[in-house]
Every structure is written in C-alpha cells, then in structure tokens.
Amino acid sequence: MNYLKNIELITTGDGSHSLYVKALKESYHSYAGAYFEARHVFIREGLFVLFKQLARSNKNVTRPSLSDRFVVKEDNVYRSSFKEGEVINGLAASENERPYPEILEIGWGTGLNAILSFEQGLLYNCRMRYTALEPHPLPLFLVERLNYRKFLDARVKDYFLKLHECAWEVEYDLGVITNDSKFVKHKVTLEKFVPEKNKYNLVYFDAFAISKQPDVWTLANFKKLALMMKPGGILVSYASNRIFQNHLIASGFAIEKIPGPAKGLQRKREMVRAKRL
Ligand SMILES: C[S@@+](CC[C@H](N)C(=O)[O-])C[C@H]1O[C@@H](n2cnc3c(N)ncnc32)[C@H](O)[C@@H]1O
C-alpha cells in the first residue's frame, strides 16, 4: 500500500514533529514525543549499549565506570557517561584497529534515528556505517518541514537534509566531521533486501506497529535479521508485544524487556532489546 498520498505533519508532546498516515491511522513516532522516543529507544537503549560493547572490547579502556555507570539522565536528556569528545575508537593503537560498527535501520522514514546516531558518533568520537531500508521514501518538501534541526548539535544539523538528498543505493561519506562515518539507504523492504550475513552490530527495528503492518513482523523477517547480525549484536524496538518476543526467541535472540520512553508517554511502557546469541 502506498500510504504517502495522505500524510500530515503533526507536533508531538516534546515539540518535535512527526507524521500521521491517514490510511494506516498511525504516526511515525510516539505522540508524546518523537525526539524523546528516538533518543530513548534507539540511542540510549541501542547505540549507547553498542558504544559500551566497543569500549569493553578495547583493551586500552580500563575505567570501571564504563560498565557501571554508562548512561545517566539529566534534565530528561539521556547522555553517555563518556565525557563529550572522549575517544572511543581513537584509543585503538592503529587506524586499522578503529572499529567500524555496522548499524541497520528497518524503516528509515524521517531519518531522525540516523541523524541522532551520527550526532552521538560525533559527540563520543565513534565512526559508524549506517544502512537504512525504506520502501516508501518521503517527499523532500515534507522532510524540509520537519523541525529536527533545532534539536541537533550545530555541527551535524546540516546533514539531516543531506541524508535525504543523497542518492539511493550509493554509499555516502559523511566526512571528518562525523569521524568518517558512512551512510547508505536502500529503497527496498526488509523482505526483499538481499543481505550480507554476519554483518550488523546493531539493528533499529522501527516499522509501523504490528497491528498496522503484521507482514513486517514475521518470523521469516526476524530469522533473516538474525542471519545478518553478528553474534552479540543488539536489536532494539519500541515494541514489546508477545508475537514479536516469540519470533525473536525462535530466531536465536535472547530478549530483555526494559522500560520504554518515559512514564506518562502514551505509546509504550515497555520496549524490547534483543541480543543475537
Ligand atoms: C514508524 S515509521 C518510520 C520511523 C522512522 N524510523 C523515523 O524515525 O521516521 C515506519 C517506516 O517503515 C517503513 N516500512 C514499511 N514497510 C517496510 C518494510 N517492509 N521494510 C522496511 N521498512 C518498511 C515505512 O515506510 C516507514 O517509513
């Protein structure tokens, strides 16, 4: 179904925009806060956990605080306990040892999760290679109206539109400002995507809800993701429904139910983080 014909811009509870799809009666993000949801589900509970894994696997990192106090909350904004600019990958002895973690997003949509990830890569000095799947790209005029730039660090905010403007299927080099991070978007469904095995360290599963798009939340799709991920890789999603959990377990993941975005947010009290065994 092409649901892009009837889509409208909405303002969510934290002042950030989202999109409402009339045909699905579904929004791209939580009504309570698009920015806040993305920061919590994908950055705090996904990317920061990957950073922690990378730091742990780096012999040069010895500070115990990394495992014990990785994430702190200040003024409703989640931060890492790394100091800003603290080197994660630069601690490696040589350029070849610098990790290049692979992130895969299912449902790129507005691009909010990607730009927030590059922002954190910049702040905590970790490059990444980010692959996004999206069968229904948004028209640029709509993306231009989204107010995400005002939530972003000045050094990365111009990349928000660049990610939308760059060509599909071509790897884009984000340059030194993001520590040589790379970005590629594929105009394809997860079902049709031809994957490389054993590649991804982190998956953001951000499809529309299972009640709206049950064909995306299938056992076959989670088995496919398991094959594409590295052992120990992390998958995060805002959802926590039983079918999703069962499919993950049957596909070779260990799951954790963890608190969702925040008390009082309308969408979810619980979310799932899964680890590829
Ligand atoms: C919840 S919305 C997008 C959220 C997005 N990450 C964001 O922050 O804007 C779900 C997205 O999944 C995309 N989608 C729908 N079916 C898909 C499929 N089979 N495979 C991958 N993505 C799909 C939709 O077009 C939509 O952009």
Jot down its keywords.
eight-stranded mixed beta sheet, 25% helix, alpha/beta, binds S-adenosylmethionine
Helices and strands, with pairings:
Layout: E1 7-11, E2 17-21, E3 26-27, H1 34-56, H2 65-68, E4 71-74, E5 77-80, E6 102-106, H3 112-123, E7 129-133, H4 140-143, H5 159-165, E8 172-173, E9 182-186, E10 200-205, H6 219-228, E11 229-237, H7 242-250, E12 253-259, E13 270-276
Parallel strand pairs: 6-7, 6-10, 7-9, 10-11
Antiparallel strand pairs: 1-2, 2-3, 4-5, 8-9, 11-13, 12-13
Helix pairs in contact: 1-3
Bound molecules: S-adenosylmethionine (SAM).
**How far is the first residue's CA from the last residue's CA?**
35 Å
Mean pLDDT: 85
Uncertain residue ranges: 61-76
In percent terms, what proportion of residues is strand?
A: 15-25%
Overall number of structural domains: 1
User: Biggest β-sheet, characterized?
Assistant: 8 strands, mixed
Number of strands: 13
* Helix/strand class: alpha/beta
Bound molecules: S-adenosylmethionine
CATH first level: which class? Alpha Beta
Give the CATH H-level superfamily. Answer: Vaccinia Virus protein VP39
Cα shape = globular
The helix content, as a percent range, equals: 10-25%
**H/E order of the elements?**
EEEHHEEEHEHHEEEHEHEE
Architecture (CATH level 2) name = 3-Layer(aba) Sandwich
- Write out the strand line-up for the largest beta sheet, numbering strands in chain order: 8-9-7-6-10-11-13-12
- Rg from alpha-carbon coordinates: 18 Å
Reported by name, the CATH topology is: Rossmann fold
Number of helices: 7
